[in-house]
Write a structure and sequence with these properties.
Shape: elongated
Number of domains: 4
Strand content: 25-35%
Distance between the termini: 81 Å
Number of strands: 25
Oligomer: single chain
């Protein structure tokens, strides 16, 4: 009789431990850190995951393992031993989100929706409400863009934005423990998401860094994205009908001119400076105009690397040698008698301006600033004379050029490697009969390349140009164009010829140039 009772009790215990039980539909149970085994067993029993908390306690006593906190998902009947094993392994429920390289906030929102983190629109709306993550000056910047390291992530179902950011930082440190982690943040950095970052980054919003530094004086910070100044090389009056922007003082609605942002970051010793958006104009994201513009106009230099006037602002204040740059050009035919703004970027003490030899007065150069005059246009020349310690040390002149009569070619290098990869970059210029550059020339120029190389590209820096980048011809844009040639693997010479293309316009004296290609070992390659 006793044997039968013991046998029955053992069978009942085995049934409680090994027989599958639990929900037929999805159920979540969250086990909090520090919870006792007894409390966990009660949670599982109350949720219907196990039939008896005593059976779970028995398995826990037999296994002697530790239980891991987290949220667990149960969606089918399972034996107590299986339930215990999952919790001991820490098989917590997570949702996988893959963030590819270059994903926009809209891409991320769609992926989070697919993973079950609300709807795409709810995510975007939530970001718009998060004051610490967004900026009220740029609708396109109201997001977490810049935070998420491209990777495959597994987040808890109730993960917060701060937890997501901390996960990204940990992953960065795992992959490269030698570098600090930062992010380009559109907002105040004060709502938790930025707490995990080693260095705090601010995008634009010059009203925010001072307050953050006051509250967190020991945290390093910098301008992670600044400026978004706009200009079209060689253009001095904004013209929406031609999709051009003046070179004096334009910026995107959320940004600042070169002078505005650097006066902020260049006068605060407690921060590390900033990154200007952008160094080059770039293809795509045409700003501030759409079609037929083909590229942005944010660059300090244009698509060909030709410097815009703002380039010389940075040269003046980011370098130590004396610097002076005078603009605009002095070819304003048809605008005789009009007042023209004349600016000088310089790091000298004082600058005096002359128009056709007549002084327009001297001005002290403000630190991190510029000097400017408004003078009546008349053909001839303008000249700036920069002084330091009372002595003129630099001068620069802009003369009214005549019609284009000739072409000039100059290369960045006279000799390149004959490895089939090395290149030379040629500048194409329009000259008048006095040999002066013509800053408004737009002649169509044709090119012929022969010998130990080939033409691989042309350009002119025009943000609205629809001409081919590969054909052997290009129009000048405000006096300049560019040709790129590449070597073959045979040493010798590359011969480049430039001449007027087509029947329109006056005849031009062409130009020729030779570039030597020297024998060189090919770059190591696989395959």
């Amino acid at each position: 009789m006793v044997f039968l009772v013991v046998l029955g009790a053992a069978g009942a215990a085995a049934w409680l431990v090994f027989a599958p039980s639990g929900p037929d539909s999805e159920m979540f149970v969250e086990l909090r850190p520090g919870s006792s085994t007894v409390y966990i067993s009660q949670q599982l029993e109350s949720a219907g995951v196990v039939r008896s908390r005593f059976a779970f306690l028995l398995v826990r006593w037999l296994k002697r393992g530790s239980l891991r906190a987290g949220e667990y998902r149960f969606d089918h009947p399972a034996a107590v031993t299986e339930v215990y094993a999952r919790i001991a392994r820490g098989d917590v429920y997570t949702k996988t989100v893959i963030v590819p390289e270059g994903a926009s906030i809209f891409d991320i929102a769609a992926r989070l929706e697919q993973a079950g983190f609300g709807t795409r629109q709810e995510f975007l709306n939530e970001q718009a409400r998060q004051a610490a993550l967004v900026a009220d000056f740029d609708p396109q910047a109201r997001s977490l863009e810049g935070y998420l390291f491209p990777d495959t992530y597994r987040f808890a179902r109730k993960a917060t934005l701060a937890q997501i950011a901390a996960t990204m930082v940990r992953r960065c440190h795992e992959l490269d423990p030698t570098r600090a982690v930062s992010a380009a943040v559109n907002g105040s950095n004060e709502k938790g998401v930025s707490d995990a970052f080693d260095v705090i980054g601010f995008n634009y919003a010059l009203q925010l860094p001072d307050a953050y530094h006051k509250e967190h004086p020991k945290r390093p910070l910098y301008g992670s994205e600044t400026s978004s100044a706009l200009s079209t090389r060689g253009v001095y009056a904004t013209d929406p009908l031609r999709n051009t922007v003046n070179s004096y003082d334009s910026a995107a609605r959320w940004g600042e001119t070169a002078e505005e942002w650097w006066k902020f970051y260049g006068t605060r010793e407690w921060e590390a400076g900033g990154f200007a958006w952008t160094g080059f104009d770039y293809r795509g994201e045409p700003t501030p105009y759409g079609w037929p513009s083909i590229n942005s106009q944010f660059g300090i230099v244009d698509m060909c690397g030709f410097p815009k006037d703002a380039f010389y602002y940075y040269k003046a204040w980011w370098r130590t040698e004396p610097s002076l740059h005078l603009f605009p050009h002095w070819n304003f035919e048809g605008r005789e008698g009009e007042m023209i703004p004349v600016w000088v970027f310089s790091n000298l003490d004082e600058v005096e301006l002359f128009v056709n030899g007549q002084s327009q007065g001297s001005q002290k150069v403000p630190r991190l600033g510029h000097v400017e005059w408004k003078v009546r246009y008349e053909p001839g020349f303008i000249e700036a004379r920069g002084s330091k310690d009372g002595k003129v040390v630099l001068t620069e002149k802009r003369e009214t050029a005549g019609a284009t009569v000739a072409i000039r070619l100059t290369a960045d290098r006279a000799e390149i490697d004959a490895d089939g990869e090395d290149i030379a970059i040629l500048k194409v210029e329009a000259l008048d009969k006095e040999g002066r550059p013509v800053p408004t020339a737009n002649n169509l120029i044709g090119f012929k390349v022969s010998g130990a190389g080939a033409l691989i590209g042309v350009g002119n820096g025009d943000p609205n140009c629809q001409e081919s980048d590969k054909e052997p011809r290009r129009s000048l844009f405000n006096g300049l164009a560019q040709v790129i040639v590449q070597s073959t693997k045979r040493p010798g010479e590359i011969h480049i010829e430039a001449a007027k293309e087509g029947w329109d316009g006056p005849e031009l004296t062409g130009a020729k140039l030779a570039i030597t290609t020297k024998k060189a070992a090919p770059r190591p390659a696989v395959g």
